[in-house]
Prior knowledge:
The protein is about 55% helix and about 5% strand. The radius of gyration is 27 Å and the shape is globular. It is mainly α. The strands form five sheets. Strands 1-2 form a two-stranded antiparallel sheet. It has a two-stranded antiparallel sheet with strand order 3-4. Strands 5-6 form a two-stranded antiparallel ribbon. The two termini are about 25 Å apart.
Amino acid sequence: MSNDNQRLLNPNPNPERLLAIPVKKSDPVELYRPLRNLVARKYSESDAQKVESVLETLNKCRSDMVERGGLSLPMQRDCLIHYFKCLCMVDPLFTAISSDSDSDPIVFVWYDAFNSEHENGVSSQRNSIQLEKASVLFNLGAVCSQIGASCDLTTPLGRHLAIDAFNAAAIFFYKLWKVFAKDVSATLDLTLLFAETLYRLSGAQALEIRLQQQLDHNNNDTAASSALQQHRIAVTFRLVSENYQIAYDLILHDSAATEHVFSFDRTWMTHLHQKVKFFKVEAHRRRSSILPKSQLPKTISLFRSCPLDHDAVSVTEKLVRGICCWMSLVRSCPLDLDAELVKKIWKLKHKSIPKQERIPYLDLLLSEYSSFKIIDDGKLVANPWDMPPPYPTNLEILSSSSLSIMLPIPLKKSEPLDLYESLRSYVALKYSESEAERVEGLFKMVDKLRSEMQRDDLSLPVRRDCLIQYLKCVCMIEPLFPMTTSPNPPIFVWYNAFNPQQDSSQHNIHFEKASVLFNLGALSTHITLSCDLSTVQGYRLAMDALYDASYWFFILWKRVAEKASATIDLSVNCVQMLREMIAAQIADLTWNCPHSHSDGSSLAGYLVTLRCRKAYDLSTLGPLAENFVQSSIPQFLESKMKTRHVQTDPSDVTEQFLSGYCEAQSLLQEACQTPSLDLLSEVGPVMIKDGNLVINLRGIGGDELPETTVT
C-alpha cells in the first residue's frame, strides 16, 4: 500500500489499532446431573439414556469454556459454537425444570465484560437459559473480534482472516441485538444499546480492512482505476463512516454507557471520535464517485468480490482465496429449494405451516463429519468439541432390500488423473520450489480425494463425505487455473452419466466442479433408494436425501453449468429436468408424512403430476430425448406414483432436542459461513499454521493421511 493510502486509512495516533471486545466471565455450574435426573423423572430412564451423551458434552463444553485455561482463540470459538448447539438442544428442559419442584435450580452467574467490579456488574439468575445463550453469543462475537485484532494486516492472508473474523463478530452481535438482548435483564454489556454498538463497531472494522484492500489494489493496478472501482471505494467509505458514527453516537448519548466504556478503556471514545471525523470527511469528498444503479453491472466477477487481495504474495494465500469460490457456490443457495411447494402441502394437510427448518438427517445419521449424531434406536450422540473427525456412524439404517420409490440417477465416471504432480510442478515452475513445498500437503490430499471419490466399494455416506471434501479442495485450487504456462496441465476426462459412450476432456476447473456437483446430487438419490420407508428414521432420511440432491443440482444449474460446456448431462436443461423429477418426489413424500395419513387429496396429486410433467417434457424434447432413448427416466415419469403409509412412533425428548439443534444451526449458519476461520481450527482437516497449510485428513477410505507441515 502506498504511504498516502496508509496515512489515509490511519488518522488515529495508533495506526494499526483495532478494538477487540473482552469476553464475559462466568462461575462454574454443574449441568449434567440435574438435567439427566429431570429427563429420567419427566420422561423415562430410557429417554435419559438416549440424550445423556448430549448432556455430558454440554457439561464438558461449559466446564472447558469457564475453567480450562490456555485455549487458543480458535479453540475457544470451536468450544463456544459446540456449546451453543448443545444449549439450544436442551432449551425445553429449562422450561420444565423451572416448574418442577423436585428439581434443584441451576444458577447461571455471568460478569460484565467491561466492568465486572461495577455495582451492577454481575448477573445471577435461576434456570435462565436465555441469559446463558445471550452470554455465549456475546463471547462468540468477542472471541471473533480478538481473532480479527490479532491478525497480521501487512499480508493479504492476514487481512482476509481479519475481515472474516470481524464479519463473524458483527453477525454474532447482531443476533444478540435482534434476538436475545430484548428478553434478558442482565448486565449493561447485554443491553440492546451495547449489542447494537458492538455490531456496528465490528462491521466498521471489517469494512475498514476491506477498504485497505481496495485502495491497495487501486494503487497497484492501473486498470482498476475505473469508475466502477472508484464507486466501490466511495461506497465502502460511506459504509465505514455510517457504522462508526452509529457506534459512537450510541455510547456518547447514553451517560451510563459512556461511563461504562470509560471505566474499561478511556481511549476507546477518542479512537472512535477520530474514526468518525476522518471517514465522514472522506465519504463526503468521494460521494460524487457513487454511480447510479443503472450504470452498475448486473453481476460482479467472483474474485473481485472476494475479500482476499488479487496480488496474493504466496501460493498459500492464493489457495485460501479459493475458499471464496466455495462460499460463492453455497452462500446464495437456500437449503429448502422447494419450500413453497412443501408449505402448500403442509397447509393443506395440517392447516398450518411448519415452524422449524428441516432437520439435516442425512448428516446426523450418516456423515462422518457431523459431530452430532443419531444412532441406534434414536439415541443422540454429541461428540466432544475438541475431538476431530471422523465420528462413528451407524450405517445399518440403510437397507438394500427397501422399497424403490424412485429411479437412482447414475453417477458420472472419470478417468484417473495425477493431480498432485500437475499442481506441484506448476507451482514450482511459476513461483518457486519453496512455495511448492509449502502447499504440497494440500495437493496430496486433493489427489487422494479425487482417487477415493471414484471408488465404487465405498459406502454411500463415506463417498458423499469424500465428494464434499474434494469439492471444497477444487474450489481452493481454482485460482491456479488455467495453468497456461504449465508443461503438464491436468486434463479432466468425464463420461456422460446417461450415455457412457460419450465423454468430454478439458483443462477446465469448472468442468471438474460441475461433474462433482452432479455426482453429489446423483449419490443422494442412491441414498434415498436405500432407505426403509416403513420406519420414521428411514422416511426422514429419504426426505433429507432428496432435499440434498435438489440442493446440489440447484447449485450446478444456477452457478456452474453454463461455465462447463461438456456432455449433455451437465447442460442446464438436463439439470433442470432432474430437479423437477426430484421435486415431484419431495412433494409425494411430504404428503405421505408419517405423522398423519394421506386422504388422497386431488391437489397434492396435481402438484406431484405437475412436476413430473415438467420433467417429462424436458426429457423428451430436443437433444435430451436422444440421450434418454435407452433410459427408463421418461417411462418412470409417466407412471403414476403410489402413495405410501408409514409407521410412526410417538414423539419423545429426542424430538425436542433435534428441534433445538435446528434452531442453533439456523442462528449460527450465517456467522459460521467463514471457512477461512475454520482453517484456524485445530480439529479441521486443513489448517493454517505459520503461513503453511497443515493437512490432517482422516477417515477417507479407511486410511489416514499423515499430517504434513512444511516450513
